[in-house]
C-alpha cells in the first residue's frame, strides 16, 4: 500500500492521535481555513498518525529522526518533492498546535528540512491567446453567455476558481466598476473590473441567468448558476474552460489559474506596480507576487536570445 492510501477512520487511531487530529482541525476552523485546506491537512496528518502508530509512537514520542524516516519513505513510495513538502507542512502545523497546548515539549518538524521544490514558472497566455479564447465563446445560449461572462471576469480580475464560484449577485458593483471577492481565509478584497467583463456579466444577468434560475430566481444568490439553477463548483469551472480551450485551439495546459497568472503578468507588462498587483490578487505577501517578475525576466531573456546578434 502506498503512503497516499488511507484506510479506516480516525476513530481507529489511539486516543492521543485522535485528540491531536481534532485539535488541529479545531484550530484551522478558528483561523477560518477553507474546507479544502482543512480536508487536505486532515488527510496528510492522519496518514502520518497511522504510520507513527504502526511504529508504536504517540505524538509526544515523535522525534525529528522519525519524521526524516517518514519523509524518506514518502519519497521511496514515489511522492514528488512538492507532495513531501506539503505533508511536512501539515505535520509541522499539527505539532505546532500540540506544543501551544502543552501536549508536546517541542516541534520535531522544525528540525526537518522540506525538499527543495522545482522552480517552475506559471502558465501564462499571450494577450492574443486570451483574446482568441474569450472571443471564441459564443453568446447564443444561456450556458454560453454564462461561460463568456465567467471567464471574462476571471481574466479581468485575476480570480481563483474558488473565488469565481463564491461570487454572489451583489458582488458586482457596476457603478464603481469593481468586484467584491471573498479570498482565502475569508479575506475580502475589491478588484477593478474592465468594461468587457462588466458588459459580459450584464448580458448574462439580463439574458441568461433568469433562464437558469427557473421559477424562483431569488432562491440561489450565486452569480453563476448551473443548468439546474444551482451554484457552480470549481470542477464545473475547470470542465467548461477545457471545452472552450479545445475549441479555440489554445496550446498548453490552460486551467482557471492560467487566467489568473495571465492577468498578473499582463498587468506587470503594462507597467502596473507590484504592490497593486499583490492587492488585486489577494496575496498576503509581496514575495508571492514576485514570481511574475521571474516570468517577465524569463520572457525578456528569451526575446534577447532570439534578437540580439551576439546573444
Question: Could you explain the architecture of this structure?
Answer:
- It is built from 13 helices and 3 strands.
- The protein has 311 residues and is mainly α.
- The chain folds into 2 domains: 10-111, Tyrosine recombinase, N-terminal domain (DNA polymerase, domain 1, Orthogonal Bundle), CATH 1.10.150.130; 127-307, Orthogonal Bundle (hpI Integrase, Chain A).
- The chain has a 3-stranded antiparallel beta sheet.
- Residues 1-8 have low confidence and may be disordered.
SSE blueprint:
Elements (H helix, E strand, L loop, with lengths): L14 H16 L4 H20 L9 H13 L4 H20 L26 H9 L6 H16 L3 H5 L6 E2 L4 E5 L5 E5 L2 H19 L20 H15 L7 H14 L4 H8 L4 H4 L1 H17 L4
Antiparallel strand pairs: 1-2, 2-3
Helix pairs in contact: 1-2, 1-4, 2-4, 6-8, 6-10, 10-13
Keywords: Cell cycle, Cell division, Chromosome partition, Cytoplasm, DNA integration, DNA recombination, DNA-binding
Subunit structure: Forms a cyclic heterotetrameric complex composed of two molecules of XerC and two molecules of XerD.
GO molecular function, one term: DNA binding
What features would you highlight for this structure?
mainly alpha, chromosome partition, DNA recombination, DNA binding, DNA integration, single chain, cell cycle, globular, 2 domains, DNA polymerase, domain 1
Q: In percent terms, what proportion of residues is strand?
A: under 5%
The helix fraction, in percent, is 55-70%
How many domains, in number, for the residues? 2
**Radius of gyration computed on alpha carbons:** 23 Å
Query: What is the CATH architecture descriptor of the largest domain?
Result: Orthogonal Bundle
Distance between the termini: 52 Å
Number of helices: 13
